[in-house]
Amino acid sequence: MIATPMRFTRNSEIYGEDEAAEYLYQVVSGAVRTYKILEDGRRQIGAFYLPGDIFGFEAEESHISSAEAICETHLLMVKRTAVIFRASHERELARQLWDAMALELRRFQAHSMLLISSAEERVIAFLLDISRRTTKSAAIDLPMSRQDVADYLGLTIETVSRTFTQLEQNGAIALPTTRRVELRKDTLSNRFAQNFG
Q1: Pair 87, 94: CB distance under 8 Å
Q2: What is the spatial distance between Cα 103 and Cα 53, in angstroms, rounded to a whole number?
Q3: Is 12 exposed, middle or buried (0-12, 13-18, 19+ CB in 10 A)?
Q4: Less CB within 10 Å around the terminal CB: N or C of the chain?
Q5: What is the DSSP secondary structure assignment for residue 82, as one 8-state letter?
Q6: What span, in angstroms and rounded, lies between the C-alpha atoms of 38 and 67?
């Protein structure tokens, strides 16, 4: 299947809310956020997509949220109708699409459950998820800002910053820079388990 490579600069729109959902996208490099602007003007980030992730799935014919490149981002895009047509004839492609949609649903469910947790639990779960998705090492470089993290976790930027500081003081993480986080996974996982236990 022929995919079109696309390049997006930092903060540039990939698609807007209510626009026709004509394409599926895969992140090659960089990072993407999907979001909605709420009636009171706040931004709620629904998901972050990292290299390898596929996004753009919609139940209807239009997008329910907007998507932006967080940083310099390269994507592959393919017509949704072409994927659906081909999947109707190729069992392996149909299975891959099913897996991708199931993963999207699982992330949505996990995010929904996360929003009823404490601020510390939200930040810890976020860091563990990003670590699992990006690297096998104990250090992660966050492509997103603290404001992005706050808008994803349903917290204020002050609460996110304070929680990062508390986790650092408790020895669960180290913060060499504002975007680089070194995880002490045993300590972090134990704190997460204690909070949920």
Answers
A1: yes
A2: 10
A3: exposed
A4: C
A5: H
A6: 15
Question: For 157-168, b where at least 16 C-beta lie within 10 A, e where not — what string?
Answer: eebbbebbeebe
Residue 9 token pair = 């600069």
Residues 86, 25: contact at Cβ < 8 Å?
no
Structure confidence at residue 1 as a pLDDT band (50, 70, 90): low
Return the SS3 of 116.
coil
pTM for the full predicted model: 0.86
State the Cα–Cα distance between residues 192 and 195, nearest whole angstrom: 5
Q: For 180, what's the count of Cα atoms within 13 Å in the CB-facing half-sphere?
A: 5
pLDDT at 185 over 60: yes
Task: For residue range 40-73, list pLDDT tens digits in order.
Answer: 999 999 999 999 999 999 888 999 999 999 999 9
**What's the CA gap between 144 and 124, in Å, rounded?**
16
